[in-house]
Specification:
Radius of gyration: 29 Å
Oligomer: single chain
Distance between the termini: 77 Å
Strand order of the largest sheet: 3-4-5
Length: 210
């Protein structure tokens, strides 16, 4: 007999569902909003990446990677400039301080060219290279692989070192150098980071050449 009371009627209870209640995806009951459902509205799917992601999440991830690389590059530049400031304020131009005599010295010079003294007094050429590097990074930033972690770090080291030497060229028309191994051209902190960056980038492409 139907008493009109649905409180104890399981059929009546289960046949009703609120239109405002989210229906879980059948393959993911822990995700009631269907955020991992590739057919859910507003979710983009990359055919090369089976895990779909929203446009906002993709943008934020790449924005964070971009800012991290820029931050590392600026840290490299600041470190380079601080070391050069110390050399300029504690040494005379042309002064050499032996650490290991005839092996390693600190020698303060101004280099108007590139490594090995190539292309002297071509400041605008070297500054154009710095601008081109940053422009290329900005254009290619979304294609820079995040793994292995040394690759974006290498890009940051290259940018930071180039910017450090670029600042010298704008201020002085030459680059401050001071690491002197006697049998090798004198170089600086920025040069070290540039070489590390280029070396790691070349190593990455060599490992992934196939």
């Amino acid at each position: 007999m139907d008493t009109g009371d649905t409180k104890d009627n399981p059929v009546t209870q289960t046949s009703y569902s609120s239109p405002e209640r989210a229906i879980p995806h059948p393959l993911n009951p822990l995700n009631p909003l269907n955020l991992l459902n590739p057919h859910a509205e507003g979710v983009s799917v990359n055919p090369l990446n089976p895990a779909p992601q929203s446009g906002a999440l993709w943008y934020n991830t790449h924005q964070e990677d971009f800012m991290t690389t820029i931050l590392i590059a600026f840290c490299v530049t600041i470190f380079d400039q601080l070391v050069k400031w110390f050399v300029v304020n504690h040494m005379e131009l042309g002064e050499t301080i032996p650490v290991i005599r005839n092996v390693f010295h600190f020698t303060y010079i101004l280099n108007p060219g590139a490594a090995f003294g190539l292309l002297p007094h071509q400041d605008w050429f070297f500054l154009a290279i710095v601008v081109a590097l940053f422009a290329a990074f900005f254009v290619m930033r979304k294609r820079i692989p995040k793994k292995p972690v040394y690759f974006p770090a290498a890009v940051a080291m290259l940018l930071g070192g180039a910017l450090g030497n670029g600042i010298d060229r704008v201020r002085l028309g030459a680059v401050i150098d001071f690491f002197d191994f006697r049998i090798w051209p004198i170089f600086n902190v920025a040069d070290i980071f540039i070489c590390l960056g280029v070396g790691l980038i070349a190593f990455y492409f060599w490992r992934h050449s196939e």
